[in-house]
């Protein structure tokens, strides 16, 4: 496949404090979520040699502020088409402000939407939001799957996300750091619940259940800045996968994400 016909991705920012991801094909420039200020997203885009004025579509996963706080600003300033399911539109209305009607689009959970040369597949996750859904992107027989903000991964979801070429998967917390940390017990229970977040161990298990021979890049995302560390998440996932005879570093790469530094663009 020529370089001009590839799907390229950058995890611009990923953490419990703010999330946004950039996907481009020859015909489309897409953001998934904008959980920070418009200026911050623009700075992150410039750091990978891209500009928000070229982005045509913004897909929203759910209404929590670390995913939606910049959505309205970007839609109004750059005229992006914004896609979300109806419960998410309803839940984030007070957060994002007014989006022009012509830029509001419904993306129903469990449906696939074709945007020119890219097919976007939506799927529901188990999270304490109105109707959280994430996305898998397909272009020229290549796929990139995003899976964060979920308390568990169902058998059906494992099948949906099987054998993607690249994954962004949640490793939100280290169990001991969370249990021993300063969060109130009610918040710890929420994070640990089936509608909370995947731990480092859960992330590793989800990856091993989903990935296949085509999988070459794995990004560990949505790390809590209070209950995890980049090095710890990476070590935990790599160790578990090696224990199960997965070819870490030979068959595929495990890569880190950052709350403030964009990952370089990569071809899926």
In a nutshell, what does this entry contain?
The chain has 268 residues and is of the alpha/beta class.
What does this structure look like?
The protein has a single domain, classed as Metallo-beta-lactamase, Chain A, CATH 3.60.15. Strand 3, helix 1 and strand 4 form a beta-alpha-beta unit. It has a seven-stranded mixed β-sheet with strand order 6-5-4-3-2-1-14. It has a seven-stranded mixed β-sheet with strand order 7-8-9-10-11-12-13, covered by helices on one side. With 268 residues, it is α/β, with parallel strands linked by helices. It contains nine helices and 14 strands. It is 29% helix and 24% strand. Helix 8 crosses helix 9.
CATH superfamily: Ribonuclease Z/Hydroxyacylglutathione hydrolase-like
Mean pLDDT, to the nearest integer, reads: 97
CATH hierarchy, class: Alpha Beta
Bin the strand percentage.
15-25%
């Amino acid at each position: 496949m020529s370089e001009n016909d590839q799907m390229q991705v950058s995890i611009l920012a990923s953490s419990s404090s703010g999330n946004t991801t950039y996907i481009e094909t020859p015909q489309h420039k897409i953001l998934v979520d904008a959980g920070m200020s418009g200026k911050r997203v623009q700075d992150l885009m410039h750091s990978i040699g891209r500009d928000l004025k070229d982005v045509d579509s913004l897909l929203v996963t759910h209404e929590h502020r670390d995913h939606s706080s910049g959505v309205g600003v970007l839609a109004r300033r750059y005229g992006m088409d914004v896609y979300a399911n109806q419960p998410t539109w309803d839940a984030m209305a007070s957060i994002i402000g007014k989006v022009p009607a012509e830029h509001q689009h419904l993306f129903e959970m469990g449906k696939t939407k074709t945007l020119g040369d890219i097919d976007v597949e939506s799927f529901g996750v188990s999270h304490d939001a109105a109707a959280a859904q994430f996305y898998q992107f397909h272009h020229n027989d290549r796929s990139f799957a995003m899976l964060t903000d979920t308390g568990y991964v169902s058998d059906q979801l494992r099948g949906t996300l099987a054998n993607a070429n690249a994954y962004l998967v949640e490793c939100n917390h280290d169990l001991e750091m969370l249990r021993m940390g300063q969060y109130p017990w009610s918040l710890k229970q929420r994070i640990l619940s089936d509608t909370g977040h995947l731990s480092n161990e859960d992330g590793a298990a989800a990856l091993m259940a989903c990935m296949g021979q085509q999988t070459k890049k794995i990004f560990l995302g949505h790390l809590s800045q209070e209950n995890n560390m980049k090095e710890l998440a990476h070590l935990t996932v790599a160790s578990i996968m090696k224990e199960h005879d997965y070819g870490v570093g030979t068959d595929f790469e495990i890569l880190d994400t950052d709350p403030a530094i964009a990952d370089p663009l990569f071809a899926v």
